[in-house]
Write a structure and sequence with these properties.
Number of strands: 6
Shape: globular
CATH class of the largest domain: Alpha Beta
CATH architecture of the largest domain: 3-Layer(aba) Sandwich
Strand content: 5-15%
Structural class: alpha/beta
Number of helices: 14
Length: about 325
């Protein structure tokens, strides 16, 4: 019987998750499990709105800056590792607080999904070469013949997912859809999710202000630094809103003003996709917030609701 509970704070970019989660960590005696697919990388600080050093000292954070930008990582690996960390914290009577806007990472932790066997470097390298020389469409057509069930759920432009599905087939001899059907992941805890809901126009204003602050703090210099460190703009970690546009600016393809406009536009679109993902999860309890919100009051409200769910005594405020 599940009697251990994880608190999750989800929502789109710029919705206030970081500040709220730090308050909750203080109130609940907890530690934060970051569920952000880009903050997990080193050197991507400004463009990913990573918690500041001051914020990192206010609460223990896990899965922040643990990989180099050219290291391969996926949601399946994250889900396994994050659950292990959560179980460690629960055994230590510390409250895990799962925080992030990467819906796939959240799902990987609280529901689990099959990612397949470990990386087969030789096969993957061959498939990546084929994708570059023959085109991703050829690989996608091959996958449709091998595993039409998985192909029907994929976008031909998501080359890495197509390559991964083919890699699993060539490694195991079985389509990933077959492996999905027999894989059962037991989750040893229950998750209570709270989502931060903003009026759309107000959220977009916050996003635009954040982008302006990122430029002022040195986003362009951060991207130059990544190039100076030898990282390629083709690295998966850098195929990200904010970084892609700055690369185009540095390459002389767009002006600075156009770069800023595109970052704001693409970030708004990204936030909309995040909301669409989270709205599909009916387990999330939404809390309406705005620019006048008292975050301490919201943290106390969540603390009380969370305590009412699992009836476990929590540290006093």
């Amino acid at each position: 019987m599940i009697n251990q509970f994880v608190l999750a704070i989800v929502g789109p970019t710029a919705s206030g998750k970081t500040a709220l989660s730090i308050l909750l960590a203080e109130k609940l005696g907890g530690e934060i499990i970051s569920a952000d697919s880009r903050q997990i990388y080193r050197h991507l600080d400004i463009g990913t709105a990573k918690p500041t050093q001051e914020e990192l000292t206010c609460a223990v954070h896990h899965f922040i800056s643990i990989l180099n930008p050219d290291q391969y990582y996926n949601a399946g690996e994250y889900g396994t590792q994050a659950r292990t960390k959560i179980e460690e914290l629960l055994k230590q009577n510390k409250q895990p607080i799962l925080v992030g806007g990467s819906g796939l990472y959240i799902r990987a932790v609280i529901d689990g999904f099959f990612e397949g066997p470990g990386k087969n470097a030789e096969i993957r390298e061959q498939l990546e070469t084929e994708a570059q020389t023959l085109g991703s469409e050829i690989l996608f057509e091959r996958l449709k013949k091998i595993d039409p069930v998985s192909a029907a759920k994929m976008d031909v432009t998501k080359v890495r997912r197509v390559i991964r599905a083919l890699e699993i087939y060539y490694t195991t001899g079985k389509p990933i859809s077959d492996l999905h059907s027999v894989q059962e992941i037991k989750i040893p805890f229950e998750t209570v999710q709270f989502g931060l809901e903003w009026e759309r126009k107000a959220l977009y204003h916050r996003i635009e202000r954040r982008i302006d602050e990122m430029i002022e703090r040195g986003l362009i210099e951060e991207v130059r630094g990544l190039l100076d460190k030898g990282y390629s703009r083709d690295a998966n970690a850098l195929n990200t809103v904010g970084y892609k546009e700055v690369f185009d600016f540095l390459d002389g393809k767009i002006t600075k003003d156009e770069m800023i406009r595109l970052i704001k536009q693409n970030t708004r679109h990204f936030a909309k996709r995040q909301l669409t993902w989270f709205r599909a999860d009916k387990r999330i309890r939404w809390i309406l917030v705005n620019d006048e919100t008292n975050w301490s009051v919201i943290a106390e409200l969540i603390k009380k609701e969370f305590r009412s769910v699992h009836k476990k005594p929590l540290p006093p405020n």
